[in-house]
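ok trying again, last paste got cut off:
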Amino acid sequence: EGSFSIDPAVFTDTDGSSYLYFGGIWGGQLQRWHKGTYSPKDVFPTGEQPALSPKVARLSKDMLYFEGTVGDVQILDKEGNPLLAKDNKRRFFEAAWMHKYKGKYYFSYSTGDTHFIAYATGDSPLGPFTYQGVLLNPVLGWTNHHSIAEFKGKWYLFYHDTELSKGQTHLRNVKVTELTYRPDGTIEPGNP
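nice, full thing came through this time. structure:
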């Protein structure tokens, strides 16, 4: 209750606290909520302005309500500056996802019209997060949503594309690939 936009993803931390990440541009309507209240008018940041941010909120124990306020998920560059609206190869578009690996929080997302699955890391599930790179290079098809899960000691990236339908965007198929973490915690980019 109290949420808006698209692509909700729940993350439950090792301490039992749960968080909801959500949001998307265009159909996801972040451009109508960027000041915290709904506006029927689209307001997009331009070029050098910070990009629209996905949203996060801590969930109640029963996962039906937010505990506290909805906040922005800050995605920063290596210098600590917010990613810019014009940076559509790195900025958030939709498909928020969170996982934790070796004590580090990994926020991953789709860049939308550039078709990357990118990721940023942080020390808290609420951020801020520093952009690290690409998890998955562009797939065949328009959208690309994903999830990440550990199974029997290995980590996997689940995603969809339209390979089986030869590019028909409404006919998607699911794929999975193993993630490879480097010693510094960064992830080797995958190819569909």
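cool. The mean pLDDT is 92. Residues 9-136 form a domain with the Tachylectin-2; Chain A fold (CATH 2.115.10.20).
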